[in-house]
Amino acid sequence: MIAARAHTRVQAVAQTLKTRLKPTPLNQSRSSATNSSPPTKTWFENARQILRQSAVGRLAGSYAQVQARYPYRTQVCSILVVWLCGDLSAQLLFPAQTNQEQSEAKESTRLGGNHDRTPISSYDPGRTLRHLTVGVVASIPTFKWFMLLQRNFNFESKLASILTRVVVQQLVYTPIFNTYFFSMQSLLSGVSLNDTIKRLKLTLPTSIVNGMKVWTGVALVSFTVVPPQFRSVFSGCVAVFWQTYLSWMNQVAAVAVETRGPGSLKVAPGIHFKTSKGLASE
C-alpha cells in the first residue's frame, strides 16, 4: 500500500513537471504578452491622471462631492466668489464716476472740452452689490442651461454634438445673458428704462460680436473636456476677465448716454461710438 501511494505521488509530480515544461507555441506566447501588457495611454490621459493626483485635483474632487450633494448651493457660492473677483478687477481698472465727476464731465462737454477718460474714483460697494446680485440671480438658470445642453443634441458623431451645442450656446444664451446683464446693471443703478434701452443699443451689438469671438473657443473646451456640472463654474472663471470687459462697456455706455451730446465718443483705439441727442450707437 505504501509503495502504491509513493508511485501515485511520483506520477503526479511527473505530470506537473511535464505540464510546466511543455513548450508554448510562439503565436500563443506573443498573444499572451500582448494581452498582459498595459494599454498605452495618450498624453491627455496622462496629464489628467497627474492633475487628479495633485493638490488641485484633490480640491476638485472635494468640490465635486459637495457639488453632487448640494448642486444649487455650490453654484451660488461659486458664482459669488467668481463674480466678486470680476467686480474687484473691473473697479480697479475701470472705476465708476461719482456724481461730482459726472457733473464735471457734463460741464466739460458743454464747454467743448475733451472728457473721454473716466477719472479714478474710490471703491464703490454699491457697484459690487449690484454685480453680485446680477450673478446670483443668473447662477441657477445658467447651471440648468448647461445641464440641458448636455442632455440634448447627442448625435452619433461626438464632434457634431459639440459643434451643435456651441452654436446653440452662442445663438441663444449669449444674446439673452448680455441683455440681462446690461439691463440689470442699469436698472439696479437707478437708471430710467429709457436710458437703459439706450445703453443696450450701445453695448449689446458689440458685446455679442466680441463675445462670439471669445466664447466660441471657451465653449469648445468646455463641451469637450469639462464635466457638465463644472461648466458654469469654468465659464465663470473665464468670465472674470470677460466681466471686466463688460463692466468697461457698461461704464462707457453710462458716460455716453449721460454726458455726450451729438458727436463721437472714442472708447479705445480704433473704436468710436457715435452719439446723437444722448442716444449712442456703434
Automatic annotation (TrEMBL):
Signal peptide: none annotated. InterPro entries: Mpv17_PMP22. It comes from the Eukaryota. It is a multi-pass membrane protein. GO terms for cellular component: membrane; mitochondrion. It is found in: Membrane. This is Protein SYM1.
